[in-house]
Write a structure and sequence with these properties.
It is a single chain. By secondary structure, the chain is of the alpha/beta class. It is built from ten helices and 17 strands. The strands form four sheets. A seven-stranded mixed β-sheet has the order 13-12-11-14-15-17-16, with helices on both faces. A four-stranded antiparallel β-sheet has the order 2-3-1-4, with helices on one face. Helix 9 links the parallel strand 14 and strand 15. The protein is globular, with a radius of gyration of 21 Å. It starts with a strand and ends with a strand. Bound molecules: S-adenosylmethionine. The site of S-adenosylmethionine has 23 residues, from helix 6, strand 12 and helix 8. S-adenosylmethionine (SAM) binds next to helix 6, strand 12 and helix 8.
Amino acid sequence: MPALRVPKREAELAKRKLKKLNLYDGKRRPKREGEFVLLPVIDDPTIHKLGYEVLETELHLRPERQIYRNLESVLAERLTPEELKYLRRYDVVGDIAIVQIPEVLEHRADDIVWGLRKVHPFIRVVARKGFHEGAFRIREYSIIWGEKRLETVHRENGVEIKVDLSKAFFNPRMKGERYRLAGLVRDGERILIPFAGVLPYALVIARYKNVKITAVELNREAYELGLENIKLNRKRLKGEIEFIHGDAFEILPELPTYDRVMSPTPRGVDALALTLSKAGRWLHYYNFVGEADIEEFRERIIDECSLQGKECDVRVKKVSDFKPHVFKVCADVRILG
Ligand SMILES: C[S@@+](CC[C@H](N)C(=O)[O-])C[C@H]1O[C@@H](n2cnc3c(N)ncnc32)[C@H](O)[C@@H]1O
C-alpha cells in the first residue's frame, strides 16, 4: 500500500492536509525512517501530485483493542475488578454483538448486555457464541438479547457484506488481513479464491483493485449470500468476481492457473498441494499451526514446491491467536520460477 515520504518537520502539516483531502489512511500507522516519516495514504492518483515521494511499503495496522477497553470502563460501574478480568474479547458483525460469557460471569450476563448496548448503541442483537461445527465452519449461537435473527449487513474495508451467522462462516477479525492482501495485489491480476464463504476476501480485493477473481464455495447458503453481496457492492467494485458453487477439490483441477491464489482453508482441511498447483506467482495459504510447528509448516510448503517443480520463497506470518500456543497463520508463498 502506498505511503508518502515526508521530511520529519513537515509531517504534522502534511498529515493534516492529507486528512482534509481524505487521502490519509488511518487504518495504518505512520513510521519514522531517519529524518523522514512514511505517512500511510490511500491508493488514489492525487497522491502523486502532492510534491512528495510515493513509496510502496507495508505499514503496521492500528490495533483495534480500543473498543474492548471502552466496554471494560463502562462495566467498571457494575462489575468488580476481579470479575472484569474474566471479560472476553467480543465481536460486532453489522448490528449483532457476539460475546463469550464464561461460567464465572454467568450471573452478570444482563450487565454485559447493558454495557455492550452502551458502547454500541446501534446493536439490535446480542448473541452468545458456541463452537464452529462441520466442514462449513458454521458456529452455534444463542441469542440472549434483542431481535431473533442472525442475519445482518456488515461494513468493512469500504464494502457491505450480507451475512447470516446461522448459515455461513464469517470472521470480522480478518478485516486487517483482507486489507493487507488487497495491498499486495496489483491491477490486472487474475486471482483464485477457493473456500470463499460469503466473499469477504473477494469483495475487499475487487473494491480496491482492477482484477479478475474466480471464487469457489461449497455451502449453498454461503454461495447465495455471496451472489447477493456481488450485487450489493456492484457500484463500488473496480474488479470482477466470478463465483462458482461446488467442491474446491473437484472444481480446481478443471481450472487454469492464476497469478495469485488465496486459500482461507477450513480448519482440518489440507488443500496445500491443490492450491499451490493453481498458483502462478503467489499463494497465500492459511492454516492453524502450533507455535513450535511453524518452521515445520514452512518446510512442508518448500517440499511441496519442490515436488511440483517450483522454486519458492516462503514467509509464514501469525495472523491471530487461535488457542494458547496455536495460531492462525498465513504462508505467503512467492513462486520464483
Ligand atoms: C474458514 S471458512 C472461510 C470463508 C471465507 N473465506 C471467510 O473468510 O469468511 C471456509 C469456507 O470453506 C467452505 N468449504 C468447506 N469445504 C469446502 C470445499 N470442499 N470446497 C469449497 N468450499 C468449502 C466452507 O463452507 C466455508 O465457507
